[in-house]
Every structure is written in structure tokens, then in C-alpha cells.
Amino acid sequence: MFERYKKDPVGFVKDILGAAGRPYDKQEEILKAIAKQPRVSVAACNSSGKDWAAARAIVWWLHTRTNAKVVVTGPTRRQIRDILWHELRIAVAAAGDALPGKITNDKYVIDEDRFAIAFSSNSHHNIQGFHSPNLLVIVTEAQGVKQVYMEAIKRLNPTKVLLIGNPLAHEGELYESHHAKSSLYHQITISAFDSPNFRRKRFRIPGLVTPEDVEHHRRDWGADSPLYVASVLGQFPDALEDSLTTRNHVDRAIARHEEQPVVPAEAGTSQPLDERGRSLPYRMGVDVARFGGNESVICIRRGYRVEHLIPLRRGLDNMQVADEVKAWTDALGINAVFADGTGVGTGVVDRLGQLGVPVIGVDVGGKARRPSQFADLRAEIFWEVARLLREDAASIPNDSVLVGQLLALRYDVSSTGRIRLESKTKLRHRGVASPDRADALALAFMEPPSLDIWV
Question: Are 385 and 395 in contact (CB under 8 A)?
Fold first, then answer.
């Protein structure tokens, strides 16, 4: 009887569950996103009403579809029962006799083919075996859910995934969904200032954050503290202690790229020139895929501006990758190509040499130019990329995959004081794919040894 609301969760909540309150604009945004997007990630301040929206999404999903299931999980069962499941009870009760079904402590059952069930994420074995042609998975307090559990969720092949949480953790699926995996999720951010209680002087909504709450936190933590940024503004703190670069630096590099569609040239000249009046050469970086899920990437810059970022079709062999590189070098007159010369990249470098391409094989795992400061050449190259971003020099395209890869990179300092970049193996353990586009970008910003290694 509710099939007409199948694509309209906001209408369902207002018409059927309206006695328990109406959604404000951010809650409507969550509900609409679930209807349209396969994966939704909500990073929100404290007391923003995100669980209110998630509970009503459960009711809407089950009552507008046949053979539908909802799996709800979070770090502890208490969090699910006391918050989200409490909101679920209120929502169902508001509909009165219009909605069939029975609610227990961890189940909401309509019939054997339509039900919601809740688990804590203390063991990834809990979630195995739940399959449905209409499966919605909701992860509450997602910042506290371990990655091994998230991988178990993905193996269920859910129709929809909703992550909700506070941006307090610096790793995990919630963090990566707004950074390295941003291209896979529809992101929503809720600040305390989005609360309708900031627009109401009277009749405030109980349970939602208030101006008095925010002022208390500002005095307690300081407006610049990471805790204030996460708990009040609903944002991930701009820089982690071990982040190679920041969202702010990357966004500024994208803005520069969009503001300057071509490299600036002196009046009356057809070629872009540097500050000494010399024509700016093209440089190319090439990262060669090592595994089936990775991609080979070509990155071409002119001066500080990335002109082309070209992910190649997956499945190309070394000869085909070399042919693609050759075509671009011939078309643009590129006189320096930096290709990863380790592993499978060795074959591409050898073939490019045979084709007469001015290629330089780069052993990224080899000795750095400044070995007292960097553990290997890869750390040194990326450190210089971060410097170019920090100093507002480089400009990069607005490529969500590239952005996510740059923001996912981390570093540490060894006992001997040398900077080390997080290995790709550790990235995979965090659920982050190989940063192929970032690798190609870093290689592109090298220079032939005779001209020094950095731009």
C-alpha cells in the first residue's frame, strides 16, 4: 500500500510518520540521498539528528518494498539500542495501526521476507549470511567500526549502504569515504550551525544541538581545536599529524587549475614562458599497474600546471602502455618521461627506450637524493609534491580519485630521523587502493638529473 513512496522517503516520513516530527533540511538530504545513491556517508556533529533520519529510513525501506531487509550495525549494541533503535520505536509508534510488524530489542519483523536486524561490530562473523534483492545496511557510529567488519559488509553486496558518524577517527571507512574513497560515496556533512535550533528562538527541537552547546564547546576546546572542528563543525580536522598534505592545500591547487585554464604566457607570444623567458617544456610521469584492480596512469604537466591526467584502459599489457606513452610524447613533443622502473614497469621502460622515447626509469624504492632526510626516493618525491601544494605552486585537475589518493597518504619519521611514506601494503590494510594517479603525478613533477630533480 506504500509502493507510491518507493522513491520518496521524505514524503513517506511526512505523510505516514509525521506524528513523530518532521525532518529538517539536512535530514531530508540524508533520506533523499539514500533513495538515489548506492552509498551514502554522513559525517556530522554531535546531536545533529542523523540517527533520527536513519531510523525512519529503515521503516520506509521495509514498507515500500517486498522481500526487503535492513542490517544495522555499530561498535556496541548499547549504541544501537539506546539511540537508533529508540528512534525506530518512536517512528513506528507514530504510524499507529497503519504499519504492521513487531519490534524487539534487536529486531523489527514484518514477515519472514521483510525485517531489520541489529548487530554490534565486535565480530565480522555476525554479519555473514544476510542477503536480499533489497538489502540496506546502516552503520551507525561508523568512525568506530573496524575495517575488517566493513569488508564483511561489502561481501553481502548490499543494495544501499549508509554510514553515519562523527568525524573523530583518522582511519576507517567513514574517514576514507570523505577522502581516498570519495568517488565511491555520496558525502553529506552536518554542522551544528545547520541545526534548526539556530534559527529558532522559541520552541526548539529537543535533542538537537543548540547555540548554548556550541558556545560551551568553543570556550572549553577553542574554535581551532580538532575536537571543535569534528564535534561542532562536523568536519574531519584539516590535517592529521601524519598526513602528507591537507584538504585545504589540495582544494587550493584545484582552484588554481580552474582559474588558469592555460599556462600564463607573455603578451604577443604563442608559447608559455617561464620567469626567464624560456619556453616551458612538457614533462610526463607514468605509473604502470601491478595488479588487476590497479590502473596504469599517464600524467602530463607544463610548468606547475597538470595539463593531462590519463587513466589508461585496464588490462593493457606493457607494449600497449608503451604505445600510449609514445603517442602522447609525439603529439606534444615531450622530451622527458619519468616512468616507474621497478617490477612490471621495467618492461615498459625498456620498450619506450626501443621506441626512441626520452624515458628515465625511476627506482622509487631506491636511494633518495637526500638520503639523510628520506628513507627512499618515493618519500622524497612525494615530500616535494606536498611542498608544491603547501606553497601554492602546483595546480591539479579536479579529479576525485586523485584527490582521495593524495589525502590518503601518510608518513612517519624513523628512529634515525628519516621521513618514510606509508607503504602500499599498509594502505591496502586500511582498505585504500594503490594510489596510482598520485604516483603518476609525483613522477611528472621530477626533472632530468642535469636540471636537478625538482621543479
Answer: no
For residue 101, the number of C-alpha atoms closer than 13 Å in the C-beta half-sphere is: 26
Picking from 213, 251, 219, the residue whose alpha carbon sits closest to that of residue 45 is: 213
Best CA proximity match to 395, nearest among 264, 304, 334, 309: 304
Strand partners, 301: 283, 306
* Cell numbers placing 198: 539556530
Residue where the block lists cell 607573455? 266
Q: Select from 253, 224, 263 the least CA-distant residue to 387.
A: 253
Amino acid identity at 150 = M
What are 7's three cell numbers?
Answer: 522513491
Q: Are 263 and 311 in contact (CB under 8 A)?
A: no
Closest CA to 307 of 288, 278, 333, 326: 333
pTM of the model: 0.63
Looking up cell 570523505, which residue turns up? 178
pLDDT at 454: 45
Report residue 274 as a C-alpha cell. Answer: 617561464
Per-residue model confidence (pLDDT) at position 240: 56
- Encode the chain in three state secondary structure: CCHHHCCCHHHHHHHHCHHHCCCCHHHHHHHHHHHHCCEEEEEECCCCCHHHHHHHHHHHHHHCCCCEEEEEEECCHHHHHHHHHHHHHHHHHHCHHHCCCEECCCEEEEECCEEEEEEECCCHHHHCCCCCCEEEEEECCHHHCCHHHHHHHHCCCCCEEEEEECCCCCCCHHHHHCCCCHHHCEEEEECHHHCHHHCCCCCCCCCCCCHHHHHHHHHHHCCCCHHHHHHCCCCCCCCCCCECCCHHHHHHHHHHHHHCCCCCCCCCCCCCECCCCCECCEEEEEECCCCCCCCCEEEEEECCEEEEEEECCCCCCHHHHHHHHHHHHHHHCCCCEEEECCCCHHHHHHHHHHCCCCEEEECCCCCCCCCCCECCHHHHHHHHHHHHHHCCCCECCCCHHHHHHHHHCEEEECCCCCEEECCHHHHHHCCCCCCHHHHHHHHHCECCHHHCCEC
Distance, CA of 185 to CA of 176 (rounded, Å): 10
Residue 397, C-beta contacts closer than 8 angstroms, at least 6 positions apart: 254, 257, 306, 309
Which is nearest to 375 in space by CA: 328, 330, 413, 431? 413
Q: What is the mean pLDDT of each run of 10 residues along the chain (455 residues)?
A: 92 92 95 98 94 96 94 86 91 89 92 91 71 94 88 93 89 89 94 91 85 87 76 79 81 87 45 61 90 84 94 89 96 94 89 94 90 89 91 92 88 76 82 88 84 46
